[in-house]
Fold:
Amino acid sequence: MPISRKVIWWEIWPTENGALAKEFIERAIEGNGGIAPDAIHADRGTSMTSNTVTGLLAQLGIDQSYSRPRVSNDNPYSEAQFKTLKYCPAFPGRFGSIEDTRIFCEQFFDYYNNEHRHSGIAMHTPASVHDGTAVKIHAQRIATLNAALLARPERFRGQRPTRRRCLRMLLSPRDQADHNPFEAQPIRHARPVASEGRGGWGALGMKPGPTRRPVDGHPPNVCRSA
Structure:
């Protein structure tokens, strides 16, 4: 199965412990249509290494995988999601309440799964790769590129245009300048919890960050979509 990068499930809590982690995993599997991953990769925090969680994983036949000590990139898919969230201009450094955090994440992860064009999966959305519709979309892309070559071969020097080059030629400067407030610009600090990787899920917690000024006049605790 391809690496979809889809955020399968997320939750926000003011604390973490083995019981919450166990319930989270159970709800994540239920939210994934009852399909459990082959493995779950996590850090070595007390929640994910607790007897409560390890017992559940053993019962469900899910392999356990943990980051190596002092190795920051042992969970690259979740870390990549962390960067996308961290660089989102709409993300505030602090939230007014835990409910504000949940409202923001509900909007962000809906955007991330269904609208964000991920460079690591050929500019498909995580949801389309996860549900298999990306195969049809990719075939349509190839047909469009081939048609562009047949119609104007002189523009491509006789070689089939790549998707990236075709986009550069088709988009106007204004189109290229348009952006979603969920995209670009470095900021800090939150993490998605369960995301699909190669045959398994990655698990991370939520961390607070520094205070951030409003973006484009929007209040820092409000997420705006384009």
